[in-house]
Design brief:
By secondary structure, the protein is an alpha/beta fold. It has a domain of about 220 residues: Amidase signature (AS) domain (Amidase signature (AS) enzymes), CATH 3.90.1300. Helix content is about 35%, strand content about 10%. It has 13 helices and eleven strands. The strands form three sheets. The protein has a six-stranded mixed β-sheet, sandwiched between helices. Helix 3 links the parallel strand 2 and strand 3. Helix 4 runs parallel beside helix 5 and helix 9 crosses helix 12. The radius of gyration is 21 Å and the shape is globular. The two termini are about 40 Å apart. About 50% of the residues are buried. The structure holds glutamine (GLN). The site of glutamine has 13 residues, from loops. Keywords: Acyltransferase, ATP-binding, Chloroplast, Endoplasmic reticulum, Ligase, Membrane, Mitochondrion, Nucleotide-binding, Plastid, Protein biosynthesis, Transferase. One of its GO terms (molecular function) is glucosamine 6-phosphate N-acetyltransferase activity. Subunit of the heterotrimeric GatCAB amidotransferase (AdT) complex, composed of A, B and C subunits. It is a peripheral membrane protein. Its EC number is 6.3.5.7.
């Protein structure tokens, strides 16, 4: 009940949700009853979970932020959602997002713009802006988002909450609307690393409906957080941290630079040695990402043709039906991506664009590997600036794309980690780090071994 009244207070200002569950109280009462009867309940019992609107839910609409799927209701729950429900989590609603995940501010949603709870004139980031804003404003306790090229990490940074992009394959993508399948990952938001760890633990693991999901065992990510006092126990002693030089060069706000140097000193106080490391292929990440992501999306989004999926615009002839349904259903950013992707994949251009972008991806992977030969982890800011004003970059797509520079393949903003290092500290899990990512907010990052 307290969350329902909080929603009615905050939602008119924030617009984080596209849909709020109408069975919320009943779902909560069911869990209450289970507890009263002494039945076993899962680790999410009574936890209100927001779900990004590109993750399918059987009892609520799933639009992906797109007019073309307005009022669409999926016939099934995504695996991540099913697992949340099986562990007694309560779905509070579906969160706003840039259409099909294409954007960095939620301004590309077909339905509404979400505001940043810390300053309503600013963007919450994107594309999972609704999920980040909802947790930040305490409209829900944790939430699910998706991250293809920064869409969990960047809004978490802009809204001052924990955002985690798990390793690809850790969480099943079954029921996640595909944007760029080779990069798409479902991730988590929370107000603490421990909460985020609990949610990750619940949704992780192999799924026979997603062949790319990993069958590695799922450690209990949340088990030991409370017992560690980082400052007193100096558990990070001897850890070699590489600060990626290229992420702190021109174009990065001074506030971000000083936040990162503050984080570096903090890590040193905890016993780490921090040195600068160069990642020569850093600047190639952004252009290669936008070619690969647009190409894959142009293929993935072909299913929304008004016949198999998507709202249909009536026409006398089949091609006109496809054309009109897509022209009316997709917003301008999505149409632009489809055009770019189709161009990059066309005969005669494939080698020059898509294939080269794939080669660049291999190069980037190699330069990470090299940097990790000398370092246990790598760190960088999440974005070159803190949250900017609504409308500031809306009509300048290149400026908006440029803001994504840190989160293209630079892993979780970015940390690579040698697997063995943290074993002595947290037998299963890895590391939690506080990396201030903007001038006054910090982003906690939870890392799983690569
Ligand atoms: N800004 C990125 C894009 O528009 C975000 C992608 C994502 O992670 N969904 O492609």
């Amino acid at each position: 009940e307290s969350y329902i009244s909080r929603l009615s207070l905050t939602e008119p200002h924030l617009h984080s949700f596209l849909h709020i569950s109408d069975t919320l109280l009943r779902d909560a009462q069911l869990i209450d009853r289970k507890i009263e009867k002494g039945e076993d309940v899962g680790p999410l019992a009574g936890v209100l979970v927001g779900v990004k609107d590109n993750i399918c839910t059987a009892d609520m609409p799933s639009t992906g932020g797109s007019r073309i799927l307005e009022n669409y209701k999926a016939p099934f729950n995504a695996t991540a959602v099913r697992r949340v429900k099986e562990k007694d989590g309560i779905l509070i609603g579906k969160t706003n997002m840039d259409e099909f995940g294409m954007g960095s501010t939620t301004e590309a949603s077909s339905f509404q713009v979400t505001a940043n709870p810390w300053d309503l004139s600013r963007v919450p980031g994107g594309s999972s802006g609704g999920s980040a804003a909802a947790v930040s404003a305490r409209q829900c306790m944790v939430s699910l988002g998706s991250d293809t090229g920064g869409s969990v990490r960047q809004p978490a940074s802009f809204c001052g909450v924990v955002g985690l992009k798990p390793t690809y394959g850790r969480v099943s993508r079954f029921g996640l609307m595909a944007y760029a399948s080779s990069l798409d990952v479902i991730g988590c938001f929370g107000t603490s690393v421990a909460d985020t760890g609990i949610l990750l633990h619940v949704i992780s693991g192999h799924d026979r409906f997603d062949a790319t999901s990993s069958n590695r065992e799922v450690p209990d990510f949340s088990s030991q957080f409370s017992s560690i006092n980082l400052v007193e126990s100096k558990p990070l002693k001897g850890l070699k941290v590489g600060l990626i030089r290229e992420t702190l060069e021109d174009g990065v706000d001074n506030g971000v630079k000083s936040a990162i140097s503050g984080a570096a000193s903090h890590l040193e106080e905890l016993g780490c040695t921090v040195t600068e490391v160069s990642l020569p292929s850093f600047s190639l990440g952004l252009p290669a990402y936008y070619i690969l992501a647009s190409s894959e999306s142009s293929s993935n989004l072909s299913r929304y043709d008004g016949v198999r999926y998507g709202n249909q615009v009536f026409a006398e002839e089949l091609n006109a039906l496809y054309n009109d349904s897509r022209a009316k259903g997709f917003g301008p950013e999505v149409q632009m991506r489809i055009l770019m992707g189709t161009y990059a994949l066309s005969a005669g251009y494939y080698d020059a664009y898509y294939k080269r972008a794939q080669q660049v991806r291999t190069l980037i992977r190699k330069s990470f590997k090299d940097a990790l030969d000398d370092n246990d982890i790598l760190i960088s800011p999440v974005a070159p600036s803190a949250a900017y004003k609504i409308g500031e970059k809306k009509n300048d797509p290149l400026a908006m794309y440029a803001g994504d520079i840190m989160t293209k393949w630079l892993g979780p903003a970015l940390i690579g980690l040698k697997e063995s290092y943290f074993k002595p500290i947290m037998p299963h899990f890895t590391l939690l780090l506080t990396v201030p990512s903007s001038s006054h907010r910090s982003c906690l990052i939870l890392i799983e071994p690569l």
